[in-house]
Structure prediction request, 223 residues.
Amino acid sequence: GQNIDQPTEMTATEGAIVQINCTYQTSGFNGLFWYQQHAGEAPTFLSYNVLDGLEEKGRFSSFLSRSKGYSYLLLKELQMKDSASYLCAVHGQNFVFGPGTRLSVLP
Amino acid sequence: KAGVTQTPRYLIKTRGQQVTLSCSPISGHRSVSWYQQTPGQGLQFLFEYFSETQRNKGNFPGRFSGRQFSNSRSEMNVSTLELGDSALYLCASSPGTSGLQGDEQYFGPGTRLTVT
Prediction:
């Protein structure tokens, strides 16, 4: 079967750092993606990991451990506009999305 | 480059009717995937089309079908609509050139379907 788990909600303070975890069990693995989705909008691409390790992209970094079926998204210097849902998605046989983590950034 | 477009953006239908949604992918992209998003179930994969062929299918009943044209545009159809079909239907395109490497998906704005 295919299963992706993420925390449902997280809260952090403006300027802080937050780590959103994702664990997965999927059929096949071609890559892991993180998407950001603001309320009422379509998801937008944030990052992509296919090999183990850390990928850094500005204020966002994503880590992958294929042997552990684990990834995290790290957001630094949080801004109010980062309040959104963050979706972990695994490209295996299909694209399977996690339930999303709703992040609230407080002033 | 123009992004993924979906039409219509909003739709209200009555139970028992059928509906067709349209998606135009990014120019050059050959893969189109469809998703249903509801507050309770999150994003769920419906199917993927590549070069006019259905390449993958999710766990939805046969009332949900789709097709892809030679220009990569895709349509999905839902017959005999049920109240539970009310959702945001998202289309995503990707180059889709290889199943061995991850392809980033670009999402359209979605079609919000309300079934009454």
Notes: The two ends of chain B are 37 Å apart (CA to CA).
